[in-house]
Amino acid sequence: MPAMLVGSHGGSHGGSHGRAPARKPPRPLTATQAERVRRAQRAGAYVLLIAGTVVFVLPFLWMITTSLKSDAENLAFPPQWLPDSFHWENFVRGWAGSLDYTTFMLNTVLITALSVLGNLISCVLPAYAFARMRAGAATLMFGALMATMMIPREITLVPKFILFSKLGWVDTYLPLIVPEFFGVALYVFLLRQFFTTIPQELIDAARIDGASELRILWRIMLPLSKPALAAICLFSFVGNWNQYLESVIYIRTTEKFTLPLGLGLFTDQYATQYNQMMAVALIAMMPIVIIFFIAQKTFIRGVTLTGIAGR
Q1: CATH tag, 99-308
Q2: How many Å apart are CA 187 and CA 234, to the nearest integer?
Q3: Are 169 and 250 in contact (CB under 8 A)?
Q4: Which end of the chain has the smaller Cβ count within 10 Å, N or C?
Q5: Least confident among 1-10, 68-77, 220-229, 287-296
Q6: Residues 198, 221: Cα–Cα separation, whole Å
Q7: By C-alpha distance, which of 177, 182, 290, 303 is closest to 235?
Q8: Are 251 and 171 in contact (CB under 8 A)?
Q9: How confident is the model at residue 24 (pLDDT cuts 50, 70, 90)?
Q10: What is the spatial distance between Cα 61 and Cα 50, in angstroms, rounded to a whole number?
Q11: Which segments constitute the ABC transmembrane type-1 domain (predicted)?
C-alpha cells in the first residue's frame, strides 16, 4: 500500500513537470507603437514605389537627354548623362531628313484609327451576348474564346501570311486592319466583365418597353460603359501604333511604312545618329502620352472595374 502511494505520488509529480507552461497572449500594441508600425509600413511602401518608378523612368530620361546631345556627345565614352548644351535642332534634322516621317505618321494614324474602330465594333457585340444573353453553349463558347488567348501569336504568323498572300494583300494595309474587325479575345473578356456589373433591372425594363437587343446595347449598355470602352480604345491604340512585327512582314514599299518601320531605317553607311533617332522616337510616342494623360482617370477606372467585377 505505501508503495502504491509512493508510485502514484511520483507519477503525478512527474506528469506535472512534463506539461509545457501555458503561453501568455501577446500584449496589444499601444497607440504609439501602432503608429510607429504604420509609419514603417508606409515608408517601406514609398521606398518600393520610388525604386520601381526609377527603374521605369530611367530609360525614358536617357532617351530625352540623348535626343538633346551633339554628335560628339552621342558617341562619347564613358557615356555622359547630361549634354553640355541642348541641341533642339536634332528634332528638325531627324524628322525632316532623308526619310519622309510625316508620311509614315499619316500611315500609322490611318492604320491605328481603323484598327481601333474595328476592335470596338467586333468586341462589343460578342461581349454583350456573353454577358446578357443566355444560350445553351454560351459557357462553352466563352471558354473556347478564352482558350485562344493561350495560343502564342508567333504560331499564327505563317498561316496568316500564306492566306493573305493568296488573297493578294501583301504590301497593303489590309492584313493589319481587317483582322481587327474579327474581335480580340482580351477585349471581349474585359467588356464582358464590365457589362455584367450593369443592373439587370435596366435591361428588363427596356425589354418590357419593347426595346430590341441592339437598342438596349446602344442606348443603355454603351453609355454606361465609357470607362471600359476608353480602356479598350487605349489598349488598341497603343498596340496598333507600336505595331512592328506584322508591319515588317506585310509592308514592302517604303512610302507605305509606318513610324516603327521608319525608325528601323534610321541608319547610314557608317554610323547611327542616335540623337536624331531618339528625337524622332520622342515625337512618335507623344500621341500615346497625350492621349493617356487626357483619358487617365477614365482609363484607370475602366481597368479597375473590369478587373474586380464579373461573375
Answers
A1: 1.10.3720.10
A2: 11
A3: yes
A4: N
A5: 1-10
A6: 8
A7: 303
A8: yes
A9: low
A10: 15
A11: 105-295
Residues in the chain: 311
197-226 residue pLDDT tens: 888 888 888 888 888 888 888 888 888 888
Rounded Cα distance between 246 and 48, Å, is 37
First to last CA, the chain: 75
pLDDT of residue 231: 86
Region at 31 (left for phi over 0; alpha for psi -120 to 50; beta for the rest): alpha
Domain range annotation of the chain: 99-308
State the Cα–Cα distance between residues 86 and 73, nearest whole angstrom.
11
* The three three-digit cell numbers of residue 63, written as one number: 532617351
Those residues with Cβ within 8 angstroms of residue 92's Cβ, 6 or more apart along the chain or in another chain = none
Distance from C-alpha of 32 to C-alpha of 206, rounded to nearest angstrom: 57
**Tens of pLDDT along 244-264?**
999 999 999 999 999 999 888
The helix/strand/coil state of 212 is coil
User: What span, in angstroms and rounded, lies between the C-alpha atoms of 156 and 185?
Assistant: 15
Mean pLDDT, the chain, whole residue set: 83
pTM, full prediction? 0.78
